[in-house]
Amino acid sequence: MIAEIGHYALVLALALALIQAVVPLVGARIKDPVMMSVAGPTALAQLAFVGLSFAALTTLYVISDFSVVNVFENSHSAKPLSYKISGVWGNHEGSMLLWALILALFGALVALFGRNLPPTLRANVLAVQSFIAVAFEFFILATSNPFARLAQPPFEGRDLNPVLQDIGLAVHPPLLYLGYVGFSISFSFAVAALIEGRIDAAWARWVRPWTLAAWMFLTLGIAMGSYWAYYELGWGGWWFWDPVENASLMPWIAGTALLHSALVMEKRNALKVWTVLLAILTFSLSLLGTFLVRSGVLTSVHTFATDPTRGVFILAILIFFIGGSLALYAWRAPSLKQGGLFAPISREGALVLNNLLLTTACATVFVGTLYPLALEALTGDKISVGPPFFNATFGPLFLPLMIAMPFGPLLAWKRGDLLGAAQRLTLAFAVALIAMATVFAIEWGGPVLAPFLIGVAVFAMIGALIDLKERIQLFHQPFAVSLRRLVGLPRSAIGTAIAHFGLGVCLLGIACEANYGAERILSMKAGQTVSIRGYDLTFDNLVSRAGPNYRELVARFTVRSGGTTIGVLDPSKRTFQARNSSTTEAALLTRGFSQIYLSLGDVSDDGSVAIRLYHKPLVLLIWLGSVVMVFGGAMSLSDRRLRIGAPRVARRRNLQPAE
Amino acid sequence: MRRLALVIGAALLLHATPSRAVQPDEVLPDAMLEQRARHLSRELRCMVCQNQSIDDSDAPLARDLRLLVRERLKAGDSDQQVLDFLTVRYGDFVLLRPPLNWRTALLWGMPLGTLIVGGVVAFITVRRHRRNSSTEGSANHAMPLTLDEEARIAALLQKAPDQPPAR
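Predict the joint structure of the above. Result:
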């Protein structure tokens, strides 16, 4: 019964989506306020029905109803409750339903918070949003029904892929989808603007918070996924340039570019045509990401769906939305008037450079990811494009960006003073040079490029702080005045500095981890000791334990530094009976921002174990930097200038009695 | 007989616990040579895996390739000779860094090409825009308001005096 309710709710949601896609669009065309106002309530009702459908599937998982194929294939009655719930989106059908749910959520949010939008724009945005909903809900119902029943229900489920039974899976896909789908709002706004044929700074002010929110979720989602791969896959890597990772990186880069170009549009009314194109491209890349992962066109570590009929369906969706929006763009964009003028050396100029480098980086990842597929399809030749290619091309594009980054906020709008900005960055140059020299001296004979990378990271970090310092005139004014200025500073300015600082932190972590890590691969017997970077690890014993739905072999290591015990590491190998598969659980010991990483290999008959031991200096900064970036985004999102375009909220506030 | 049982037991154990990437018994005693081997391993694709280097992969083929790389290095090959040796046997597919040739020219040329073309387009667009606007005056990029917006502005202007300023 629950399954049927879920299925029926989804059918109703599709019907609502069809209404929401067509009626407001026609209404906006013929300027009929009643037809246009249909959009709001249908968007809310759509959320209710997709939500009901999702709740039904979740309930089926929680009560382990194995008469439903999807539950049977991906769940097990002995699985902990949290993994029963996260298992809902740990498979193709469920994850597509999550996609549709988040899409409906964003649509409803626009309907709720968009009451102050011009009515035609609001109607068009919600209609475009609903077109996407129609496509995805129809896709789910036609090819990926999560509510299909089994004629003869089995007693027990097949369990979820053990690698996915992790807190990382519970959080990673929803965050990623919040990011992917969040960009649908910017897309809908862009297409709506093209349909209307007008676009202005208010549009950018509307789009920016949505883009920022989506960008924050995507940043967190990617960072989370990277940390998950780091501790779960067991070989200590955190980024593999896997096509599926690239699929999430591309919308992130494009989204970052969009954030910056929307800023120019909001402040200076320039770069309009480009911003609209970026908004379309960003969501197109999100769709492409979904396509790459879901269609099975690249069968890789992450792919749990390999069914060509779905692939063709998603390809049709891709062609319709990407092709359609780009055609609309080609038709209508020339009618959009360009605004504000600026000199090449200016804040706008710096942001154009930012966009140029980011777009090129994005194109590099795009071509690198799809080139082998295209070449094989066209000529039959098979080549591999792997990490060495991306490191060799992506790095040289990102480093100039990092070097230019501190200059941008120090340049004035319209016409900037590059020399003045450089003078104000003197301290950052000096500290970066000292850092470079110090690292070079300490690690004499080590990697040549690494000190340079660390120098760039330090320059970016100090540069971001100098931006803040200049704005509050620290050391130029009495401290109290500076403090007052800091409080009065627009939150978005503080957010910019924080986010830029975070990117520097991230690069510092990457540079140190990639170049100064230590590794030991060896076989150990109980009682033996191994040393790495001043830490001594003693292998104490090997024990077998039972978990809720697995058995594990745990090796216990005591870690000592200079004779004193500082911790215990117990890496394990888990065997899951239901699928007869196993996972490696690495053990981590955090010291400051560095980590000792221990992963278990084969266990021989004589009781010796193969281990991989790493010391990863400052590795945590990679993810910490990402979190700092997201914090900067949150700070910027709380800026009142992003909310001030919302008169309804202000009116409500005025109606409240004074206390 | 006992020996056979042991082998089967080991095989079962191996099945239950897949071996992990580089194994201790593969590591060469010569640290310099081992470092070169590891470096080369990261450039080579595990042909039966999806996007994994032989350094990361636990597939038996990857192990064979790792041992082969070490064998060639011990025999005195240079890094390039090892890569060439493997390319002859397995084709370009084995290289994670695709070699530069006519088939990959677009791939390798794309980043710099995009940067240059994009830079030139951006520069020309900004310059032309500046020149056009400075000759035609600044009035041409003022946005006309729709009737709707005019009405809203009028309404707001009328309402403004009785309302406290929005915070």
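Chain B touches chain A through 60 residues (CB under 8 Å).
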